[in-house]
Structures are given as C-alpha cells and as structure tokens.
Amino acid sequence: MPLNEKTAATQIDELNLSQLNLISAVDKAENSEWEVSYEHGGRVVQIRCEALPKYSVPHGLDNDVSAALINLFMDSGMPEDGRFTISATALLRLCGWHNTGHYHATLKTSLERLHTSSYTVSGGWRDHPRGRWTHAKFHFIESLQFTTAGSGQFDERTVIKGRLADALIESLRGGYVKPLDSEFMLSLSRPRTRVLYRILDGARYDPENLEQYRDQYEVGLLAWAEQCRIPNSVPGNVRRALSGPHEELVERGYLRSVTISGRGKQQRIRYEFNENFIQVNPALLQRLQGYGIADGVARRLSNELGSAALHAHMDRFDWLVRTGVLVVKKSRAAALMHLIQHPDEYPYPLQAPEKAEKAPAKAKAARNPEPLLEPPSVAQEFAKLSVEEAAERGISRLGFHFRQDLSPLLLDQLRQAFLDGRLSPAAVLEDAMAAVARMKKAEFLEALREKLELRH
User: Fold this and answer.
1) What keywords sit in the KW lines (predicted)?
2) pLDDT band at 282 (very low <50, low <70, confident <90, very high)
3) What residue segments make up the domains of the chain, in order of their start?
4) pTM to 2 decimal places
C-alpha cells in the first residue's frame, strides 16, 4: 500500500510498545492469544495477549493505527486523561491509508481489536521516571465510541472518541519515548515490514540511557521470531518470513546489512544499522515541532547543527520573544528558521535566558525581512484552512475543551454542519472558549444542540 501523501509524521514512539512488541509482525493472524516468557537483564519477563476469536491478536496494519493514535495523543498536548476525538477520515490520513470504503472497514476492525485485546506484562513494563520495571495490564484503547452509517460501518461522517490505556499515557508523559520516522515507516510496502522496522528501531535503545543506541544488534533467530510474534518455530520458515522485510529495509537504507549465521536452531541473526539514517533526540524533535518545524526539516537541522546548537538557538529565540525584542508576525516556525539561518542579524541576551528578568529598556529590535504583527485570531487561523481541515480542527479543539460533554453523535452532526457551511468552525470555537471562560458550558451545549436540531 503506497503512502498517502497527506500523512502526518509521528514525532514520538513509546518504547515499551516497540521493545516488548505487542503487535505481531505478520500480515494476517489466526490465533486469538500468545504468551512469551524470557530472561532479560536478570529479570524474568512474561507477556500475554488475549484477543476475541472474531478479531484475532493485534497484527500487521494495527501497527499503523497504534502509531497514529500515539501521534494524535502527542499532537493534542499529552492530555492527562488520554482522551482523543477524531474523524475516521482524519485518522485514515494519520495511518497513511487511502480514504476508501475498504480502509474504513479495516480501520473499524483495527480499533475494535485494539480495544478488546488485553495485554498482561509482568516484570517488563518500564517505569522510566522511577527507573523501575513494573507489572501492567491494559487494553491499548481502554474506551471507544464512534458513529456509523446505517450499515454499521464507518463512513465519511464517522467521528471516533476514545481513551488510551493509563499505562501508555503515563509512559508517554514520563518520557519513555524515542523518535519514530513514521513517514519512512508508512512508505514501507508491507505491514510486516513496518512492524519489523518499529521493533528494530526500539531494540536499538538502551532502556536505562535513552541517549545511547546501538549501531548493531544480534539475537538468536528463534528468539527473534518469538519477539516478532511469528508463530513458527522452524528456522527455515522464519528466515523466509523475514527475507522480504530484510531486503526492503536494506534497499531503503535503514539497514546496512543482515547476516544469519550458524545451523539449525542455533542460528543467529545480526543487524547492522546505517549510520546515515538520521536519528533525532525525541526531546529536541518535540521542541522543534512545538514551533511548527516540520519533521523532515527538524531531522536535517539536527544532522547539520547538532542538538546543543539547536537548543541554544531556541533558547535565544524564546528570550527575544519574551522580552519583546522580537514579535512574531506570521509563524513561529518561519521566525525561528530565519534566526537559525541568519544568527548575526539578531541580538544575543545580556545574560542567560533563564536569568533574564526584563527586556532592555531601549533594546534594538532585531532586523526581520518582514514587518511583525500580533498572532492571528481564531478566525484568521481558520481562514487559512480548507473546509475539511477547518472541520477537523474544529471538532478536535472542541473535543479538547469538552472532553466528556460531546457525544460522538453530536460531533458527527457538528462536523457535517461545518462541511456543509451551515456553521462556522471558528465562530463555534470562539463561542465555546468564551463559554468555558464564563463557566457556562451547559448553556453553550444546549444552544449548540438547538442549532443542530438535536434535542434530548
């Protein structure tokens, strides 16, 4: 399946998911449970997955959906309750899938599978802030609601609400993360190749020092098959199952080489990673993207300038904005990029940014190629968007302010009203924020239902 050109890149991946690998690296799965037990670093790790027989265990394309939901969570500001609201069409784009009836059905099944399958991890779930290994039991999606067409299937109007697992939320917010090049991942041709890439990318990292990652990784062939959840213990079959993904990952430049040595069940597999495949510190990547810097640009900057220099540029930019020397007109991304590319045109802080108390009384304004204005209003922000983009942003922002107050049905109707032009997303959002500020959420919701002709 080719990558959808409108896919949004995932900034971050959660390391427990990739290192433990909770999604089978197979295109199709028939089993409804699996269980593994192994020793690692003096610990006994036990992992069990139980799924409903009608869905089978999470596998293949479920990898794309789980990565997309993490992307959505990060882009939403990592809400403490882990709740998300998104239309099916927007989630399809995050998954890199095309907006067709086939993929609407696939998305619905995948969400149901991730919601109903249960995981139990003993001694292997990393509590990164405390440096401990813990026990965790969860569903990837703990709660799930959505609207459907009369047939019960997803369609263009479907709106999805859900909540991620507490263990996953805590780990993401606790910083047990790494960069994930989802644009690259989703461009890989087969689901099993995308899963293998994600597992390998997680295996590179030292759990106790995330700044360190391996240039090579070696493991027993059958142990690796178990790690990838490939349900076959015959070495020849395992090698055949992995050969296609190996070839593609080497051809695409992620792996330098794959070497399998030994005989029979004693065979070992050795991966050598390509040093030129750019890895970016997740904290740096997240900070750059907070200014609106695109994922690909962030990786290029990291490779060219290094982490320390980029953090220094951003600290300097923040000080200039905070002290009023620099006022951003169009976008923070453009202003920051200009500073990075033309550092000599901007004044340096008189002292360290964290110690600066006030702006210099007569600070010389930085030379900027364009006049500078105040940040755009909500109306100006939405004016730059297409009708569909405005509708998606509208329901997403409303979902943030009214997490448990807006039902999927109301969001479905509201999104359609935005698309039809019956309501303005910017106007509704401004009314919503005003209602929150005045503590009149109930009145706003009642008025909104009346506009949509939805009565209790």
Assistant:
1) Plasmid
2) low
3) 12-273, 282-355, 378-451
4) 0.72
